[in-house]
Amino acid sequence: MAQDKQCSLLLEFASRFPLPHGARFSYGTAGFRSDGSILASTVFRAGILAALRSLKTSSTVGLMITASHNPVSDNGVKIADPDGGMMTQRWEPFADAIANAPDPEHLLQLVKDFVKEENIPFGGEQSAEVLLGRDTRPSGETLLKAAKHGINAIIGAVAVDMDILTTPQLHWMVRIKNKGMPASESDYLSQLSKSFSCLIDLVPKERVADCSDTKLVVDGANGVGGEKLEQLKKMLTGLDICVRNTGKKGEGVLNEGCGADFVQKEKITPSGFGPDDVGIRCASLDGDADRLVYFLISSSSSKNIDLIDGDKILSLFAVFIKEQFDILNNNSDSDNKLAVRIGIVQTAYANGASTSYLKQLGLEVVLTPTGVKFLHKEAAKYDIGIYFEANGHGTILFSESFLLSLEARSKELASTSSGSESHKAVLRLLAVSQLINQAVGDALSGLLLVEAVLQYKGWSIKRWNELYQDLPSRQLKVKVVDRNAVVTTNAETKVAKPLGLQELIDAETAKHPHGRCFVRPSGTEDIIRVYAEASTQEAADSLARSVVQLVDRFLGFPSSH
Ligand SMILES: CC(=O)N[C@H]1[C@@H](OP(=O)(O)O)O[C@H](CO)[C@@H](O)[C@@H]1O
Ligand SMILES: [Mg+2]
């Protein structure tokens, strides 16, 4: 009976969200993405998916409506798992299947088969909860309604509308809620501001005097991040934040000529910035505030910027964390040192100079395929895993067991040598674990950690930028007949198929000093990406161009030859 009621409810709701003619959706690197005007059926079905995921895990999950750094007319949807991370990859084929089910009957059949296979309580025996968030895109409101319908199509499932949020805020809320702790937006903001002020209080006294450099100008990409940062900044002291491109009326369009993606790809000043900002520390968020890059305008006569990307943010964090362990262990007896496995996780897009720098610090560096779900999973294998994509998405993960050891050490030091250098180092590490988002990369918490570390080190943005010098690089795109004809191995650094292509790439690369080059199919666009690095910009450009020609020869459209 209950099953019948469930089936007819699902059929009825699904009939209100027909699949657009000819559309095909795929749960890619970052969930479903498309033009916002054709996404209602997809988001409705993602609502069903989220409700089933909640039933399966007996936990709260999240559903976020965003298309991140993409144009304002785009939108998208992705699911957050109970730990706040991305939905398990194991469920992606089912996500694809239901998103493309041609009609309500097919959709119902897929759901029925899946709940049976996965042993999901279906028909109202158990309750489910989905937290919903969306960014500031105009299509978000209608799509949110579609998501609610999808969730309500599953009996026992409840949708909780958290309104406009950054993507990392929603992921954080899901994680914290499942830990049984207060998980509202104000809890999030107060956790960030408290842990930030704890780090600032632990800045060595002699360096506090040098910290006159407190001004930071932030490009909010005309998205949700700027608005949230305005709220957060009221709760902070010791930092003078000015937010531009806030998305307020008249200030500009979401991600248009601004934001972290624009700044990282174009390497020029975003709109709203200019000669008056020469020498000032500047940062850019992306449209849903899960990416962060910094930049410096060094001359009033040029639009060019010095980009401080995800690799350099990672390097700053790695230097800081390593230093805290050096302080702790240099001040401990040999039998009382705290053993820690720190892992640095990057992708092949990380600038080679960053990888060399991190290795030279004695750190273990591993590469994974592109996409934060791969980096996150690898970082979670360490006591402390620091991961970043060059584009500015990343975070620092602390394992639960390592946090317990840190807390135990902190208690011990509080009773034996409170206020000692070792004690302060442990307190700093614990504050970092509170400040930095443990669920996903988070531009707001990342920004506060950068600011705290710069104050701790007494470093200007210029000094930070000089940690190492990026090797010149070039990224190009090639349109091909079928991008899936390219199969890669070794964290996407080598081409396995088509046969023979890798040998030719190797031969080209060998012609350039410090040359490095790889190609891979994009997970978000219908293209092949080519990345090249070399000791000069001209060489990087020429290597990338030659490899584009090779890819075109193997896989391009016949007419272009
Ligand atoms: C070179 C590059 O920047 N790739 C981006 C891009 O993936 P592609 O699979 O390369 O299209 O979008 C992903 C999702 O936002 C992001 O994780 C990744 O870093
Ligand atoms: Mg984003």
UniProtKB/TrEMBL annotation:
Residues 183-293, 309-459 form the Phosphoacetylglucosamine mutase AMG1 domain. It is an enzyme of class 5 (isomerase). Coiled coil: none annotated. Mg(2+) binds at residues 68, 286, 288, 290. Its cofactor is Mg(2+). InterPro entries: A-D-PHexomutase_a/b/a-I (IPR005844), A-D-PHexomutase_a/b/a-I/II/III (IPR016055), A-D-PHexomutase_C (IPR005843), A-D-PHexomutase_C_sf (IPR036900), A-D-PHexomutase_CS (IPR016066), AMG1_II (IPR049023), AMG1_III (IPR049022), PAGM (IPR016657). Pathway: Nucleotide-sugar biosynthesis; UDP-N-acetyl-alpha-D-glucosamine biosynthesis; N-acetyl-alpha-D-glucosamine 1-phosphate from alpha-D-glucosamine 6-phosphate (route I): step 2/2. Residues 58-89, 125-176 form the Alpha-D-phosphohexomutase alpha/beta/alpha domain. It catalyses: N-acetyl-alpha-D-glucosamine 1-phosphate = N-acetyl-D-glucosamine 6-phosphate. Its EC number is 5.4.2.3. Substrate binds at residues 389-391, 520-524, 529. Residues 478-548 form the Alpha-D-phosphohexomutase C-terminal domain. One of its GO terms (biological process) is UDP-N-acetylglucosamine biosynthetic process. Keywords: Isomerase, Magnesium, Metal-binding, Phosphoprotein. The active site is at residue 68. One of its GO terms (molecular function) is phosphoacetylglucosamine mutase activity. Belongs to the phosphohexose mutase family. PANTHER family: PHOSPHOACETYLGLUCOSAMINE MUTASE. Interconverts GlcNAc-6-P and GlcNAc-1-P. This is Phosphoacetylglucosamine mutase.
